[in-house]
Here is the input.
Amino acid sequence: MRFTLKEGLLLGAATAATQIEGGDENNNWARFAAEGKVYDKTSPTRACDHYNRFREDIDLMAEMGIEIYRFGIEWSRIEPAEGAFDPEVLAHYREEIEYMISKGIRPMLTLHHFTNPLWFEDMGGFTNKRSVEIFMSFAERVIDALGDLVEDYITINEPNVYATNSLFFGTWPPEKKSLVSVVKAFSNMTACHIRAYKMIHEKRQRMGKEVTRVSFANHLRIFEPKDKDNSWHRTCAKLNRWLFQDAITEAMMTGKCKFPVMKRGGVTEGRYYDFIGINYYSRSTVEGIGDGVREDCHKNDLGWEIYHDGLIELANELGNRYGAPVYVTENGTCDNTDAFRPLFVYDQLKLISETDNPIERYYHWSFMDNFEWREGESARFGLVRVDYETQTRTVNASGKLYADIIRNKGVTDEAYEKYVEGREYHR
Ligand code: BGC
Here is the structure.
């Protein structure tokens, strides 16, 4: 064996509704694409047609031995107009969840993953004061309809990436550049998470369910000063980290709000997580407010630094601070030809298995290639390759390796030789 998987570590994969389902025109990303704003001019209305092909996809997951699966539901399908819920769509998701459970796959349901129904987007989305009530009414419907089937929940995916891209840098819909809007969205999303945390627990308890795990998926990065001897660079690293991830993490997990998060009515201090959800991709090397990549390093096909140690550092830091198991709710890389993804999977899982850390679950991003937001179909993250024209799925070498690791609880010499040996990262 090249390495044995950490005892008890569960392996799975993650996706998000808008990125794989196709067919829905009633959301802000479909409109953004229709306006020609996705770089490669593709649209999430195509994606992987998973809404129709979920059985085929879940069958493939089961064949690969996927144990846990994090997936999303499309709010704009469920509530196409404010207060109007579509029972057929909820029945569809029920069928999908029942199907994965029947295949032995444990579901983790994400309530919000970047995308808003048009009617919600056009009233200001999470910057609107009413957003908390509106989100809660949606979330309650979902739990009433599906809550008996699912133990594990993510309330909101990456509130920081959402707020930064959509409201601060203005590169995502609704293309705003306003710190005031970021503060409003952070504050309202914190209230949404905390209220949803309590609501899901209460409802599941009333259903007689003993185990319920709720948290949110945090996009966490390592921030490094470009020049360690430059005090401005050092200040920027700290400031970026606080503004981008630490303040919102603390607020959502504990209800303690500090700028840029403000305390909304109804938010009280407490413990609002049953696990620490970390989405980890890269390290930022900074010299100002914003992102940056060091010059001489291994990079993926989007130019992001590949830095596996960062995940362990963050898992340990948050594990110590918040005292809960860490679930890696996303980790993966953009590799359009699956040239180095097998090596990426190997290196990251080896590190998780051979270092001391509180990681209990690992959801690889992503199960299959999908609509990568502003990059559209051009950026591939999948263990499974998708031909969007024909909707053919082909398991990549990385997917075969992943399945082998699950089956053998580690990397055998044969698997290493077959899938990993000779592969290299590029710069
Ligand atoms: C998001 C995913 C996205 C992935 C790769 C995460 O920030 O949650 O939706 O596809 O990163 O960029």
